[in-house]
């Protein structure tokens, strides 16, 4: 019986070498396959990492751009005075008509709801409530009057002292002015505007309720015959000028779209117990164009002597129209004169025409200052304020400054006056303290 010796025969050197070579070759193949498995992963990493970095960079750039945009929408560091000002945008307040076809907000003693207005603290009053608050509109409580109607001092049921404006303007213009004032002031919140506390539209009655301003109008102090203007020293006048400028700056440059007052004048600047000025009367105000200094065509309304030339002649209204009116008020503060005075000698009837050539003459500008100031002002400050007034009343609207520029020019003057006043008071207190 034959036996197969090939299975038990020890492997020859050649077989071992062949096996070794085969194993080595097999190992190399596995190693190569292993590298083939790793190569795609590294390739993916090389491609993915730059893509991720690009995406991150784009995201960071987008965030930075958004942050810059948000920052640009906020008032800058030089406009800290407007940080308490707000303009709440909403639709125009509507006053529904009653059964008799008349327009009004309250009919049959039933007040309509005004949630957007009342959310800002503006209340709706009945006529009887305001009649009671003023003691039946007695003459003793009358504190002002004008073409719009009468203003009475009143005390509301919660004890709040207020000023109640009883409007007597009839027709569409009077109704339009009433609606405009309620709508705008219910949305505006600024310390340089007189606060609207509430209103009444009870049947034919139209009344507005404002915060009470104890010292009346700037016009009455500057142009009264009882010597009240003597209380308005230079420092107080400059602070009133700054407060009024801040009010217009807010209306023009911190609301979107801008608001044009259209009837800015000294009788529409009220003074509180500390002679701080606030702007009032928005019955003629207009919402401006979305474009910068965009023109609005409208009826020419306002007060003679304060109207900008281009508005008076063409009816084209811009924020620069208010700037001109502000310049006229600044001239009133400087000179103590009214805008139109036919009792003065020829050539001096119109304040702007008389003052403009003198404002840039250092010798003549001193001569035109209100005698009630008794020279108690800095000549340097006077020249600076005169230059501001001259720019504001330029005939060409494009040459007039923005109200922000006016504010920034007045701030250092008022700050220096305040610092000087505080320093004088401190020195005075040190001087008299040993005697006390």
Automatic annotation (TrEMBL):
It comes from the Eukaryota. The lineage of its organism: Eukaryota, Viridiplantae, Streptophyta, Embryophyta, Tracheophyta. PANTHER family: OS01G0750732 PROTEIN (PTHR47989), SERINE_THREONINE-PROTEIN KINASE PBL7-RELATED (PTHR47989:SF2). Keywords: ATP-binding, Kinase, Membrane, Nucleotide-binding, Serine/threonine-protein kinase, Transferase, Transmembrane, Transmembrane helix. Residues 137-414 form the Protein kinase domain. This is Protein kinase domain-containing protein. One of its GO terms (molecular function) is protein serine/threonine kinase activity. It holds the Pfam family Pkinase. ATP binds at residue 165. The chain crosses the membrane at residues 44-67. Signal peptide: none annotated. It comes from Lactuca sativa. Belongs to the protein kinase superfamily. The keyword Transferase applies.
């Amino acid at each position: 019986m034959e036996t197969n010796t090939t299975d038990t025969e020890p492997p020859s050197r050649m077989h071992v070498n062949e096996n070794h070579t085969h194993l080595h070759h097999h190992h190399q193949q596995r190693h190569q396959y292993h590298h083939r498995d790793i190569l795609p992963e590294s390739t993916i990493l090389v491609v993915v990492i730059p893509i991720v970095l690009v995406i991150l960079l784009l995201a960071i750039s987008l965030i930075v751009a958004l942050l810059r945009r948000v920052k640009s929408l906020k008032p800058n560091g030089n406009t800290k005075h407007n940080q308490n000002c707000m303009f709440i945008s909403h639709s125009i307040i509507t006053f529904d008509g009653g059964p008799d076809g008349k327009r009004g907000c309250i009919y049959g003693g039933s007040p309509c709801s005004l949630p957007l207005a009342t959310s800002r603290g503006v209340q709706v009053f009945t006529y009887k409530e305001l009649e009671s608050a003023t003691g039946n509109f007695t003459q003793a409580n009358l504190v002002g009057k004008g073409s719009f109607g009468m203003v009475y001092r009143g005390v509301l049921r919660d004890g709040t002292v207020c000023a109640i404006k009883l409007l007597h303007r009839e027709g569409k213009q009077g109704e339009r002015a009433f609606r405009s004032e309620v709508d705008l002031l219910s949305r505006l919140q600024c310390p340089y505007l007189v606060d609207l506390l509430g209103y009444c539209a009870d049947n034919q009655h139209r009344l507005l309720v404002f915060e009470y301003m104890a010292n009346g109008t700037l016009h009455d102090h500057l142009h009264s015959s009882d010597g009240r203007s003597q209380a308005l020293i230079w420092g107080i006048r400059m602070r009133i000028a700054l407060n009024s400028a801040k009010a217009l700056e807010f209306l023009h440059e911190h609301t979107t779209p801008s608001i044009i007052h259209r009837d800015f004048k000294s009788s529409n600047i009220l003074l509180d117990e500390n002679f701080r000025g606030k702007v009032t009367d928005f019955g003629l105000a207009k919402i401006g164009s979305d474009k910068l200094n965009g023109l609005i065509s409208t009826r020419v309304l306002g007060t003679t002597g304060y109207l900008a030339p281009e508005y008076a002649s063409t009816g084209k209204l811009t924020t620069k129209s208010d700037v001109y009116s502000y310049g006229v008020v600044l001239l009133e503060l400087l000179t103590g004169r009214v805008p139109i005075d036919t009792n003065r000698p020829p050539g001096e009837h119109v304040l702007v025409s008389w003052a403009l050539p003198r404002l840039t003459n250092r010798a003549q500008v001193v001569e035109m200052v209100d005698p009630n100031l008794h020279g108690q002002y800095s000549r340097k400050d006077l020249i600076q304020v005169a230059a501001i007034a001259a720019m504001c009343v330029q005939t060409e609207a494009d040459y007039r400054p923005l109200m922000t520029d006016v504010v920034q020019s007045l701030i250092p003057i008022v700050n220096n006056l305040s610092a000087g006043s505080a320093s004088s008071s401190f020195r005075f207190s040190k001087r008299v303290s040993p005697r006390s």
